[in-house]
Structure formats: structure tokens, C-alpha cells
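Researcher: Before we compare anything, I want clean individual predictions. No alignment, no superposition, just each chain on its own. First chain goes here; please echo the sequence and then give the C-alpha cells.
Model: Echoing the first chain and its structure:
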Amino acid sequence: MIKRVNTFISIFIKVFKTYCDVFVGTISSIIGVYFFFASNSIKISRQSISMVDSAQFTPKLVFGGIVIFGFFTAIKGIILVRNNRESYTKNAISKQDVDAFKRGFVALFSIAIFIFLIKPFGFIIAAILYMLFSMFFLSVRKGWKPVSYAIVSISVAIFSFYIFKKYLFIQLPAGILEGVLK
């Protein structure tokens, strides 16, 4: 089973390395087009004098630029693939590439778990757990510093919560610490 997963990951990495500019260009163009048209729904509180004065101008400018950037990136990727097709098929995927992909996937999955833990446990607890996991997962085992990791995780989580609450006026979920935090 593990060999099949590693083979699938190797094929995925090879395809993505070959066509990464095409993928990134196409996806960014699609996202840019979506948000370009979604910016039409921005409510305008007063009639604008010119098109530049409108609240819709900057989002349309930014997302229009993303569409153009994505289009040219995809075209560049297609040209590169056509010109270098032989070299792409000869490159082998190493075990380190597969392991790096797995680590990246676990890191992204841990972010998703962090997002789901925020509401029931609260921002501070979820952030501490996420940072501790990330520090232990991304460092070499013989270089682990559990006390330092705990101090940094607790400090950053509490400081972030405080900054969001007092200065940015954004109420993050307190979760199980509801009565403790005021």
C-alpha cells in the first residue's frame, strides 16, 4: 500500500513539475476572473464622479492584473513544456521529493485541523496546539526544545489574541476559556 502511495505521489510530483506554470497560470486566471466579476457586487454608497473614484475600481484593477498574469504564465508554461519535453521525461523523482511532499501535505492538513479546532476550543488553545505540532513536526528530533516550544507557542497565541481584541477590534473565539478571558 505504501509503495502504491509513493508511486502515485511520484507521478503527481512529476506531472506538477512538468506543468506547474500551466496549472498556476490557469488557476490564477480562473480565480481572477471570478473575483473580477464578484467585485461588481461591492455596494457603492454614493454616485462616483469617475470610474477611478468607484469602490469597485481597485478590486477590478487587481484581479484584472491577476487574470493577465495568469494567462501569460500559462502561455509561458506551454512554451516551456513544448521546448523541453525530453528533459522532463528523463528526470527521476527521488525519495526526498516524495518525503517532502508528504511533509507538506501533513503541514497543510494540520492547518485545516487548526481551523476546525478554533471554534470548539478557542483561538488560544488551537493556536498553541498548532504551533507545538508544527515546531515538533518541522524540526529534527535531536534538536527538539520542548520548553522553548511551549513558551513560544503560549506567548504568541496570547499576544495574538490580545492584539486582535484590543487593537484590531476582532473578536476571536475564546472557546473553553470563555469565562477566563475578558
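Researcher: Okay. Second chain, same rules.
Model: Second chain and its structure:
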Amino acid sequence: MRSRLTVALGRTARLAARVRGGGSGGTAFPGLVMERTDPGFLERTLGRLPRGVIVVSGTNGKTTTTKMVVQLLREQGLKVFTNRTGSNFVRGVLASLLTEVDAAGNLDADIAVLELDEAHAVHFVALGPPARLPPAQRHARPARPLRRDRLHRLPAALDRPGHQRRRRAQR
């Protein structure tokens, strides 16, 4: 029942954003509405996917990498959900789900391949994998490298063990 309300509110917010913005859509606002009204919607929806979620992040090449992975998986006969709107923040993923889920919030897909901005990927992965997944499937691997000059956006990456020691040695 909660998912139905979340989807209805998100779709109403998307319509309002399109009307107000001249029909251009709007991916952040509907995602914000969904995030605030039902913080567990994303985890519940993606947690039902039998093959899980692939997160593609990094400094360069996210879109190309995502498109290639999606194409490869589709050629294997899998139904793939991806955030093709170009909004690579968590709110953009939520807004993308609005076009793919039914009124009850069910997603007809086997796997999700999500392109996420480096800073938002950290928050997305921090949401954690659904508890129902076996331990062997509860992991994340980077698909694209991070460039050193972009690490200032990722405080969590700077908190790695040994990072402070290496920084002192570089001075």
C-alpha cells in the first residue's frame, strides 16, 4: 500500500514539474518527493530484483560503460532497468523508476544497471544491499576508476585506512 502512495505522489510531482517547466520533465523534484515520503522505496523496489544491482560510477566514461553493460545483459535475455534520463543522482534513479514501475511499485526487470555520480554512488552503496541477499551477493565493485583530483568530493574515500599516512608522506 505504501508503494502505491509513493508512486502516485511521485507521478503527480513529475506532472507538476512538467507543467511548471514547460513540459521538459524534471527528474530531481519527483525523486525528492519520493525520497522524503518513502525513504525505503528504492531499497524495497530494487531489492526484489533477482539478479541485483550494478552501480557504474567514476570520473569519466560512466554513460558509455553503462550503455555497454546494459546492451550485453539484454543480449543475454535479461530484462534490465537503467536510469536513462541522464540524472545520475539517487533522486534521478527514483524518478526513472516512475516510468518503469506499475501502480503498486513493482518493477518488471531481472537486474538494474545504474549510472551514478561519484558522490551519490557512495550514498547509494551506503544504503546497503537488501538483507535478503545471500552474503556472496552483498558486494560492490567499482566499474570506473576515480581520478585523484575528484577525491575531494568523496570524504568517505578519504577516510580509508592508511590514507592519512600516505598524505603525510607526500608532504
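Researcher: What stands out in the second chain?
Model: Residues 2-20 form the longest helix (19 residues). Additionally, Strands lie at 53-56, 80-82, 111-115.
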